[in-house]
Structures are given as C-alpha cells and as structure tokens.
Specification:
By secondary structure, the protein is mostly helical. It is 65% helix and 0% strand.
Amino acid sequence: MRLLARPKPVQTGRTNLMLLFAVVLIVILPMVWSMAPPEGEGRFKGADDLAMTAINTIAPDYVPWWQSLWKPPSGEIESMLFALQAALGAGMLGYYLGLRQGRGRLEQHLERQRHGVEAKRRKLEQANRGGLGTDGPG
C-alpha cells in the first residue's frame, strides 16, 4: 500500500511554449509601443524637461534660485552616473537583505542546536535520577 500519491505529470512542452510566448510578448511589445512617440514629444523626454516646460508656461519670468554645482559634459556621462548610482543602491540593498537572511538562518540554526543540547541534558538528568548510570563502561 502506498501512503503518498504519485504526483501528476507536468506538461513541460506546453508550459515551455507558454513561457516562450510570454517572453516574446515582453520583449516585442515595448519595442512596438516605443516606435511612434506622440506628436511634439521627444522619444525619451524626462520629468525634468516636462517640469521646466510647465513652469515656463505658467510663469515665464520665473528665475531658478539654485544651479547645479557640476553639470556632466555629455548626456552619456550623465546616464552612466545615473546607472552607477542605481547599481550601488541595488548592491547595498542586496547586501542588507542577504545579511538579514543570513542572520535569520544563523539564529534558527543556533535555536535548533540549543533545543538539541537541552533535550540531551534532560535525558541525562532523567537517566541519572533513574539510576541507569550513563557514565559508560568502566
């Protein structure tokens, strides 16, 4: 008699085709949507440019009260610095999450060891009270 039921076979061919279709959609749809930007807008117009346009429309005589300390020489360097900042942030976040997970695992391991030691100690105390003599041969 079998105690465990046999797992249902997985249809790997169908699952793989569905996953492949999903990947193709994820790759192709953004490219199709980005081919034709709306009229009058640049392809990669950012929030800073949109805010500056809105401010100039609302208050044409507005003068910024603060200037950047340093402006990168080109857009490529600015993009590289932004990517570097994102990578450093992601690295620090990953390090912190890994550290927390490792500490949690260590605490679980130490708790299991502590319970094991306590159980052995209780068994030895019970054996000593019962007069079974756990000192071993000799």
